[in-house]
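Example record used in the benchmark description.
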Amino acid sequence: MVSDRLREVMLRAEGVGELTGPEVHTGRAEHPVCGDQILLHVRFLAGNIEQLRWQANGCPAAMAVAALASVVLPGTALATAPSTLQNALQAHGGLRAHERHAEGLLLRALAQAAVTTGEA
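Model output (structure tokens):
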């Protein structure tokens, strides 16, 4: 189970849902072994993440990482998103070895969304 602080973020489910409109880009990632899935809806502005909403199926870590990302990544430059997310995860108790795949899923989904904008 994720840390208590990440569990709180997961239970609040901040940012869960969708964004719509022509300027919204989506990215999806799935873990090939466990089947966890993250779908991101992202609005970018000048190389920055303006808004991020998520949908996830799978383990608590996948949902916690997606919820945390929706809080800490808006306003962040796409190039610094991985380190911003990693710092926020550490500040919230970090991920155990068997939970770290969730961070990778989120970053792969974000990268896919960025490719569709030409921001990557």
